Amino acid sequence: MSGQDDYVAELPRPDDANRDGIREEDNDIPGWWWWTWFATILFSAFYIPYYALTGWSQERMYAEQVEAAQAIAASAPAPTANPFRGDAAAIAEGQQVFATICAACHKPDASGLVGPSLVDPYWKYGDSDADLFQTVAKGRPAGMPAWESQLGTEKIWKALAFMETLPKSDQPGIGAPTAPGAASAPAAAPAPGS
Ligand code: HEC
Q1: Closest Cα partner for 169 from 161, 179, 159?
Q2: pTM (whole model) above 0.90
Q3: Which structural domains are found in the chain, ordered by start?
Q4: I need a labelling partner for 107 at 20 to 30 A (CA). Which of 20, 34, 62, 187 fits?
Q5: Considering only CA atoms, which residue is closest to atom 1 of ligand 1?
Q6: pLDDT, tens digit, for every residue of 124-170?
């Protein structure tokens, strides 16, 4: 044994139990290891049939959870009412949004410019909270951009909460088909002389 200590680079000697000063033992496998092994076999005896026969799987659990989440999402009240109506702080924030974004096309008083009047009685796409939200979030074809990704839900509601506070006009304004001299609605413009 002591003679081997002189070796620096040893050649493989598979039959020698003592190499590099490390002694290889051949002990019995410990009891806990056997029990763990038997336990996994026992577990698999139940688990494999259960997995294979009942159709239970990660995919199915995932699908079930997605279905449940979708059911919750579908039953959750869609934003049908402006949560910021009358909330002074939110309206002040909405005013900022309106002034920086909406006013460019609708004028600061919302009486209309490129975009239609938002204070007249005429609403092309409806003036329920849900309609207004849809208009601003998703946009409308004749030049109203979608603001959802830039503003997010809250700021849209706040801008709308502010919009409501603007003084209303009872006359059809810009964009209304019946507006007097409405340039943007030729079909409905009154014929000259009528
Ligand atoms: C780039 C110009 C532009 C900007 C900016 C803009 N709008 Fe509009 N908006 C329009 C145009 C044009 C329409 C008409 C769309 C149509 O008739 O299809 C419109 C339509 C609307 C309508 C529907 C009116 C109706 O009669 O149904 C609402 C409400 C509205 N805008 C609100 C807003 C709000 C709130 C903002 C700010 C977040 C905003 N708009 C920003 C151009 C704009």
Answers
A1: 179
A2: no
A3: 31-75 (no CATH), 88-179 (1.10.760.10)
A4: 187
A5: 105
A6: 999 999 999 999 999 999 999 999 989 988 999 999 999 999 999 98
